[in-house]
Design brief:
The protein is an alpha+beta fold. The protein folds into 6 domains: 100 residues, Rossmann fold (3-Layer(aba) Sandwich), CATH 3.40.50; 150 residues, ATP-grasp fold, B domain (D-amino Acid Aminotransferase, Chain A, domain 1), CATH 3.30.470; 70 residues, ATP-grasp fold, A domain (Dna Ligase, domain 1, 2-Layer Sandwich); 118 residues, ATP-grasp fold, B domain (D-amino Acid Aminotransferase, Chain A, domain 1); 125 residues, Glycoprotein, Type 4 Pilin (2-Layer Sandwich); 67 residues, Beta Barrel (OB fold (Dihydrolipoamide Acetyltransferase, E2P)). Helices cover 28% and strands 34% of the residues. A hairpin with a 2-residue loop joins β33 and β34. The N and C termini lie far apart (69 Å).
């Protein structure tokens, strides 16, 4: 067994590998850039080596710097995690020359499967179903348009060395093919240092289902069930689960056997993933093989009980797998939600900044028999950088059945506190509560179809509005009683806090009367309803559990000026709780109009201007591209909302911008 492993990665996956290495008694080495000096993976490792500036192209993907760190620390093995150098054959070859073990597959398999064009040819030769497409490299946009027309729209434009949704675009016409080709090349070059592009047919109504494979160096290759990864945005996975709610045993077996056949055809060992696109009739087509540990591997670990990182280490050390295909059993259901530093209210644009508050839910076995797991690489007070992927954590839940796992995830999301950055927790909660998701009617177009105008929060229905009004009334009562205690008495008189309030939120006003009782409060609504409320909330707490009519509500509570902000199940509401006389006067107050920004193009996320596509005085049409902003390795196109004339350019190419900074002004 190895004595010391260097993890050539950062963030949550580096922390994940370190945990298993420690369990096996193996020393660990972290590498870090300028931006990661105080990162969690640096703190967790036994040793840490600085490898350069913040941009990954100058640090994490520079092979020579990783080799220098290996020589400096005497590591005898390297785990690459995912992304960065994990599927770089040159890196694996460099390690081999150094006499250092690569905790991953052989170089030949990386070369064969890491190039998506070659992999599709090999898959077809191995008898694996493949998607129709053009397997040669595409030289320019004109050729891309020609090939797309031959394949017939819609088509998928993909980076040959891509992954994680980077360098990937769907085109429905010539204009989108031309624009998507250039954007994919730019993203591929920036993220992978390889701008080769290919095109394949885009299967409509698709589900993205992948098979986890695991092989040793002695000829044994197994499949460990599947993962459903259909909840995606811009081809980036957001929610994954295992097993799939769609597959039957026969299809699972057929997909698994094809995945194993492909793995054996390239002499594969270690953990890997064979990805398929599956249509509504359960026909499946090979997409690609990821010759590395997959981001969503925890859900497979939760339903199989197999530590994939441990198996990768043991295989790399030459050990045989200690179990066979017949020993692999799928137990229960697991859900993974990716917590991203993306603002769902700004069309999921990247967000950076300091984590003023970061409190994950309690991990491990829960009282109801479910399990919560959170893989993360950040901590409260740390910073989310613009230089790397926006994923903050991977929250997973397990339960004996699918709906129970979904409900456990909804509870865990409600209990997850994150402040200081924009994040997608509300959106993830909305997905867990969505009827179509709960029913398992999924395609990769789920988000586009169910949230066509973006995410604007979950509007409380009538029952939820009553619950939130009751919670707000209890909070207001506690705040006022505390204030009365602090103010003391005047003479022999102490301020008396009333029991009647008017709670105002989006659906209107709710007049309530509070009645204290043992262990809680009864909330009587003027419409006749009564809700019992018990809670552990007290002024100053940002999160509390409220039991409303017997239902557990994990609610985030903020005293936002005169209002009470409550966040629960994807809802984000401000409730004004006033005394009846004050509520009557508040109805007479005029509404403040928002500022007019219609003549400004504002930067929706922190990023760098990579191109300005118009000049002062230009007349632009609705939908015309104006500028591109790069943030967290993704290119974002800024477009005109309406016809107009450019009055002033406020920025230059290469300039770093903050949120809402003006890019240009219209006449």
């Amino acid at each position: 067994m190895f004595k010391k492993i260097l993890i050539a990665n950062r963030g949550e996956i580096a922390c994940r590998v370190i945990k298993t290495a420690k369990k096996l008694g193996i020393a660990t080495v972290a590498v870090y850039s300028d931006a990661d000096r105080g990162a969690l993976h640096v703190e967790m490792a036994d040793e840490a080596v600085h490898i350069g500036p913040a941009p990954s192209a100058q640090s994490y993907i520079v092979i020579e710097k990783i080799i220098e760190a290996i020589r400096k620390t005497g590591a005898d093995a390297v785990h690459p995690g995912y992304g960065f150098l994990s599927e770089n054959a040159a890196f694996a070859e460099a390690l081999e020359k150094e006499g250092v073990a690569f905790i991953g597959p052989p170089v030949g398999a990386i070369k064969a499967m890491g190039d998506k064009i070659t992999s599709k040819k090999l898959a077809a030769e191995a008898g694996v179903s493949t998607v129709p497409g053009h397997m040669g490299l595409i030289e320019d946009a004109d050729e891309a348009v020609k090939i797309a027309g031959q394949i017939r729209y819609p088509v998928m434009i993909k980076a040959s060395a891509g992954g994680g949704g980077k360098g990937m675009r769907i085109a429905w016409n010539d204009a989108e093919a031309r624009e998507g080709f250039q954007a994919s090349k730019n993203e591929a070059k920036s993220s992978f240092g390889d701008d080769r592009i290919f095109i394949e047919k885009f299967v409509t109504q698709p589900r993205h289902i992948e098979i986890q494979v695991l092989g040793d160096k002695h000829g044994t290759t197994l499949y460990l069930g599947e993962r459903e990864c259909s909840i995606q945005r811009r081809n980036q996975k957001v929610v994954e689960e295992a097993p799939s709610p769609f597959l039957d045993p026969a299809t699972r077996k057929a997909m698994g056997e094809q995945a194993v056949a492909l793995s054996k055809a390239v002499g594969y060992h270690s953990a890997g993933t064979v990805e398929f696109i599956v249509d509504g009739d359960r026909n499946f087509y090979f997409l690609e093989m990821n010759t590395r540990l997959q981001v969503e591997h925890p859900v497979t670990e939760l339903i199989t009980g197999i530590d994939l990182v441990e198996q990768m280490i043991r295989v790399a050390a030459g050990e045989r797998l200690s179990f066979g295909q017949g020993d692999v059993k799928l137990n229960g259901w697991a859900i993974e939600s990716r917590l991203y530093a993306e603002d769902p209210y700004r069309n999921f644009l990247p967000s950076i900044g300091r984590l003023a508050r970061y409190r994950p839910p309690v991990e491990g076995a829960q009282a109801d028999g479910t399990i919560v797991r959170n893989d993360t690489g950040v901590f409260e007070g740390g910073e989310i950088s613009m230089y790397y992927d926006p994923m903050v954590a991977k929250l997973c839940t397990w339960a004996p059945a699918r709906l129970a796992a979904i409900d456990a995830m909804a509870t865990a999301l409600d209990d997850f506190e994150v402040e200081g950055i924009g994040h997608n927790l509300p959106f993830l909660s909305a997905v867990m509560g969505h009827e179509r998701f709960r029913a398992g009617r999924l395609t990769t177009a789920f988000i586009a179809e169910e949230f066509p105008d973006g995410f604007h929060g979950v509007a409380p229905d009538a029952a939820s509005a009553l619950k939130l009004a009751a919670v707000a009334a209890v909070v207001q009562q506690a705040v006022q009683e505390r204030a009365a205690q602090i103010s003391g008495t005047i003479g022999n008189h102490r301020r008396v806090v009333g029991k009647q309030w008017v709670a105002s939120l989006a659906d209107g006003e709710h007049a309530v009367t509070l009645e204290n009782r043992d262990g809680g409060v009864s909330i009587h609504f003027e419409t006749g309803e009564t809700l019992s409320v018990e809670s552990d909330w007290m002024p100053g707490r940002r999160h509390a559990v409220f039991t409303v009519a017997g239902e557990r509500l994990g609610v985030k509570v903020d005293l936002a000026g005169p209002a009470i902000r409550l966040r629960w199940h994807g809802m984000d509401v401000k409730v004004h709780v006033r005394a009846p006389r004050v509520a009557a006067l508040a109805r007479l107050m005029p509404k403040k109009a928002p500022p007019d920004t219609s003549k400004l193009l504002l930067c929706p996320m922190p990023g760098v201007v990579t191109a300005l596509l118009v000049a002062e005085g230009d007349v632009v049409e609705a939908g015309q591209a104006l500028a591109t902003i790069e943030a967290m390795k993704m290119e974002n196109m800024m477009r005109a909302e309406r016809r107009g004339t450019v009055k002033r350019l406020a920025v230059k190419v290469g300039q770093s911008l903050a949120v809402d900074e003006t890019i240009l002004e219209f006449e």
